[in-house]
């Protein structure tokens, strides 16, 4: 799978509204057949920072995502709400789901 984590620094005046601002893009991406997950979290230390954790089945699914109409729309509509270009970590990993964190096993 392709595993991606991206940090979005949102303008302070838009920080509380970011879930609504990104809602259509999020819903459309989650509906893609190759999307495994697409989850936003807000930083506990910086209320203007949102972290996106996403995964796609394979290169084909990742390519379909960046070629989709909703991705192209997001390229136009999301940056005006940001203070900087999002930062990203992107890796291919040989698995299809989350692994358990054995060091903190719940029994």
From TrEMBL:
Positions of the ABM domain: 2-90
UniProt keyword terms in alphabetical order: Monooxygenase, Oxidoreductase
The keyword Oxidoreductase is assigned to this record: yes
Listed GO MF terms: monooxygenase activity
Highest taxon, organism lineage: Bacteria
Gene3D superfamilies, sorted: 3.30.70.100
Pfam families: ABM
PANTHER family listed in its UniProt record: ABM DOMAIN-CONTAINING PROTEIN, QUINOL MONOOXYGENASE YGIN-RELATED
Protein name in UniProt: Antibiotic biosynthesis monooxygenase
Organism: Amycolatopsis acidiphila
